[in-house]
Specification:
- The complex is a heterodimer of chains A (111) and B (121).
- Chain A is an all-beta fold.
- In chain A, strand 7 and strand 8 form a beta hairpin.
- Chain B has 121 residues and is mostly beta strands.
- In chain B, 0% of the residues lie in helices and 47% in strands.
- In chain B, the strands form two sheets. In chain B, strands 3, 4, 5, 8, 9 and 10 form a six-stranded antiparallel beta sheet that branches. Chain B has a four-stranded antiparallel beta sheet with strand order 1-2-7-6, with no helix packed on it.
- The chains are: A mainly beta (111), B mainly beta (121).
- At the A-B interface, strand 7 and strand 8 of A face strand 4 and strand 9 of B.
Chain lengths: 111, 121
């Protein structure tokens, strides 16, 4: 049972936009701006896509954007492409002794 | 470009101790405020933060694993290690080492490729 809640799957057609939610609490997402998103292809290590809620690392396409409202963070992928089909994970800093918590992951399917 | 590489046994017997090492290249582990982290992923499951270490020796561990986890660093070898005691089949996972870009806040900008550790049941 992950601390952060993500939908198990999200799908969209090429060119569409999709949004993945990540819901936490006042102990994590609601109180801190240290929310990150990762993309993971099967058999590979995760890759940082968004950090500090809405910042993109160098080299990450501007089709990826992040936001936060209250206890929920969101990752939006616009102009969906076949290569976006992967698992996406959110994480957040948390006030608990376990400093970092992850969401359970969302499988993105491109129809 | 920072690169990380995990190494260790592919299989550990139940009740024994697992030790993994992460070798870092492209930058010293002893520089700045970055924390060096271990994350695992059980087969078919999500990511689980295990803990992290700073070159000062400061460590943070997952509450659920705290009693069995120990992390250390060898700056001269540019390596850091994970020790997990009393392993069970539930510890079977791919173990990743990663760099936390900002003070143990969960922004992992560089990752190793991961190493699968199996604990037979």
């Amino acid at each position: 049972q992950s601390v952060l809640t993500q939908p198990a799957s999200v799908s969209g057609s090429p060119g569409q936009s999709i949004t993945i939610s990540c819901t936490g609490s006042n102990s994590d997402i609601g109180s801190y701006s240290h929310v990150s998103w990762y993309r993971q292809y099967p058999g590979e290590a995760p890759k940082l896509m968004i950090f500090e809620v809405s910042n993109r690392p160098s080299g990450i396409s501007n089709r990826f954007s992040g936001s936060k409202s209250g206890n929920t963070a969101s990752l939006t992928i616009s102009g969906l492409q076949a290569e976006d089909e992967a698992n996406y994970y959110c994480n957040s800093f948390t006030v608990s002794d376990t400093r970092v918590v992850f969401g359970g992951g969302t499988k993105v399917a491109v129809l | 470009q920072v690169q990380l590489q995990e190494s260790g046994p592919g299989q550990v017997k139940p009740s024994e101790t697992l030790t993994l090492t992460c070798t870092v290249s492209g930058g010293p582990v002893s520089r700045g405020g970055r924390y060096w982290t271990w994350i695992r992923q059980r087969p078919g499951k999500g990511l689980e933060w295990i803990g992290c270490i700073h070159h000062s020796g400061t460590t943070f561990y997952s509450q659920s694993l705290k009693s069995r986890v120990y992390m250390s660093m060898d700056a001269s070898e540019n390596q850091f290690s994970l020790t997990l005691t009393s392993v069970t089949a539930a510890d079977t996972a791919v173990y990743y080492c990663a760099r936390d870009a900002i003070a143990a806040a969960g922004e992992f900008d560089f990752w190793g490729q991961g190493t699968l550790v199996t604990v037979p049941s």
